[in-house]
Amino acid sequence: MSHSHIPLRASATVYAVCYFVALFLPRLPEGAYSDDQVSALFGDPAERTPIIIGGYALSIAALAFLVFISLFMRALAPDRTALTGTVRVAGMAYAAMLMLAAVLFCSLPMGVAIGELPTDTDPTVYRTLSNAGFYALLVPGLLAAAVVLVASSLELRRRQEVPRWAAVLGLVLAPLLLLGVAWVPQFLVPLWAVAVAHATAQLAPARETVALT
To answer: Is the pTM higher than 0.85?
Structure first.
């Protein structure tokens, strides 16, 4: 495997790991939580610390995704095309929604942690912020991600040397992202990123051989 493709695989892996950490490490408000339970999420240091860590992880995931998309498109199409431009713009929109969700999830716990907000803040405020964060993540965020997957797959189909499964995968997964409110589909995006990064990395020796002949 070419060392030039290590950053591609690394960025996809960092994105995936940070995304899973951000969504599974902290406890965030749920509909069944009482007001006291919600208040504890930002009032108790043991609860708010994982939320703050998760916010950092989600922000890092967004940045790593931008790096991944840039490297991925450069590897597939050194010359810009309409499809690569679409992937880049939609990728930036998706990353922006991740950043927005991180802000909404963490603003109240962070404010309490640094002493800018009181621990007795109305729990309804945090319910509202958290719901807005999930909406940003699961609706506009996954719609943008679906565009990334479709446009990337169409670009992959133009490359004869790319494994066929890599081109088909995004087309299969993209419609499932429209069901983002079901929670689980969001995790298909980081898994797709790792898979296609691996597929592209496998092409490196062949592409270098062609370039040298």
So the answer is: yes
